[in-house]
Specification:
It catalyses: GTP + AH2 + S-adenosyl-L-methionine = (8S)-3',8-cyclo-7,8-dihydroguanosine 5'-triphosphate + 5'-deoxyadenosine + L-methionine + A + H(+). Its EC number is 4.1.99.22. GO terms for molecular function: 4 iron, 4 sulfur cluster binding; cyclic pyranopterin monophosphate synthase activity; GTP 3',8'-cyclase activity; GTP binding; metal ion binding; S-adenosyl-L-methionine binding. One of its GO terms (biological process) is Mo-molybdopterin cofactor biosynthetic process. By secondary structure, the protein is α/β, with parallel strands linked by helices. The chain has a single domain, classed as Aldolase class I (TIM Barrel, Alpha-Beta Barrel), CATH 3.20.20.70. Helices cover about 30% and strands about 15% of the residues. Strands 7-8-9-6-5-4-3-2-1-10-11-12 form a twelve-stranded mixed sheet. The chain is globular, with a radius of gyration of 19 Å. The two termini are about 25 Å apart.
């Protein structure tokens, strides 16, 4: 469907849990967070019902997120049910990769099309520093990446460049896209997580690009596929995969934003930075029928805000939820 600003909304990101088996410094406090109870999060039946209504409105791509979505028991069955919804063309999942090796084949068989693996470093000491978990898990994540490729899943790596933490590794991370048919995307540090409290600062995207161009030569633009997100993608000579850059602060892409988000507790968010949206959990559990659900979704999505206001911190309507509460 089209919103009031004539943007075609066709992509929903659905968080299936707020729980995670890592404690990345820019995302969660070291002691973790107070977890939602099982009754507070949407059931799979409720999620699929929302997806069916969204598909009728023109949503064609679904991405499952968390927390860590592979921690949610039965997630493979959820993938299968969502992929079977009429109108849904692509189902993907964002994961930290720790549990991926054991589930990649099952996920692919259930209809999963692709995975995005969050990986900020290839060095064990930095992995421990960032995730606050055992450095030995780095090899487990690498095995998950290999399993995803072997299963035939479209595989992408998400890296957040951090000053003084992984700056020296940006070239080696990018080189994974030269050696393997994967996309490595560098994502600007967002002002919505725990980065400020952790004393972390992002590396500007322009600096990341300069570093990579010095190492690999010209970054040749790649024509974007349908139903993709906001990454600007490039392929240097000799690369099997591509490099992507997502910088919502330096270069706003709100005018082409095609997505909405559904939190684990059932709040439909229209913009990552703003609290505008709809409490679907209450609507569903109050007995709304499918027609009422469709009408409310159509109404609220049409009102998707024109643009984020990250640059005006503290403004009216600013999102107060942390990233782990929204969904990665």
């Amino acid at each position: 469907m089209l919103d009031f600003y004539r943007r075609k909304i066709e992509y929903v990101r659905i968080s299936v849990t707020d729980r995670c088996n890592l404690r990345c410094r820019y995302c969660m406090p070291a002691d973790g967070v107070e977890k939602l109870s099982h009754a507070d999060i949407l059931s799979f039946e409720e999620i699929v019902r929302v997806v069916r209504a969204l598909a009728q409105l023109g949503i064609r791509k679904v991405r499952l997120t968390g927390g860590e979505p592979l921690l949610r028991r039965g997630v493979v069955d959820l993938v299968r049910e969502i992929k079977a919804v009429e109108g849904i063309e692509r189902v993907a999942l964002t994961t930290n990769g720790v549990l991926l090796a054991d589930l990649a084949e099952e996920l692919r068989a259930a209809g999963l099309d692709g995975v995005n693996i969050s990986l900020d470093t290839l060095a064990e000491d930095a992995f421990y520093d960032i995730t606050r978990r055992s450095a030995s898990l780095l090899s487990v994540v690498r095995q998950g990446m290999e399993a995803a490729l072997a299963a035939g899943l479209k595989t992408k790596l998400n890296c957040v460049p951090l000053k003084g933490v992984n700056e020296a590794e940006l070239v080696s991370l990018a080189a994974l896209a030269k050696e393997h048919p994967i996309d490595v995307r560098f994502i600007e540090l967002m002002p919505i997580g725990m980065a400020k409290e952790a004393g972390l600062t992002g590396v500007p995207t322009a600096e990341v690009r300069r570093i990579l161009e010095e190492s690999f030569g010209a970054l040749v633009p790649v024509v974007k596929e349908a139903l993709t997100g906001p990454a600007a993608c490039f392929r240097p000579a000799g690369f099997r995969g591509a490099l992507g850059f997502i910088d919502a602060l330096e270069h706003k892409f709100c005018s082409s934003c095609n997505r909405v988000r559904l939190t684990a507790e059932g709040y439909l968010k229209l913009c990552l930075a703003l609290d505008a949206g709809l409490d679907l959990r209450t609507l569903l559990r109050a007995g709304a029928d499918d027609a009422a659900l469709f009408r409310k979704l159509r109404q609220v999505i049409a009102e998707k805000p024109r643009e984020h206001r990250f640059e005006a911190a503290g403004g009216a309507g600013e999102e107060k939820r942390r990233m782990y509460q929204i969904g990665g």
